[in-house]
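Please fill in the sequence for the structure shown.

STRUCTURE ENCODING:
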């Protein structure tokens, strides 16, 4: 995997600073009413619901959360649960976490 495919974050920085966005687009024509999603990166877990209209998940990590991540390459995962309780994990999302400098 090429380095430019990684989401780059710095420990102690907010992921949405200066208008930056981390958005996962769910490319499907399925009706996603009642579906849920869980994002996991290191010790951080984010839960999502009510994305049936946008079919996207916006991942926002606070400075406290990024500070808790170890420096280096990590992989984030999204687990989707449909309205019938069927579960699937999407492809890994690569992150490169740089050490806090200040």
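FILLED IN BY: designer on duty
SEQUENCE:
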């Amino acid at each position: 995997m090429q380095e430019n495919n990684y989401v780059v974050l710095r420990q102690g920085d907010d992921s949405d600073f200066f208008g930056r966005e981390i958005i996962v687009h769910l490319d499907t024509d399925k009706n996603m009413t009642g579906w849920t999603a869980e994002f996991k990166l290191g010790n951080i877990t984010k839960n999502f619901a009510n994305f049936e209209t946008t079919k996207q998940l916006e991942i926002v990590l606070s400075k406290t959360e990024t500070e808790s991540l170890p420096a280096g390459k990590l992989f984030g995962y999204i687990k989707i649960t449909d309205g019938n309780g069927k579960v699937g994990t999407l492809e890994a999302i690569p992150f490169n976490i740089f050490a806090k400098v200040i």
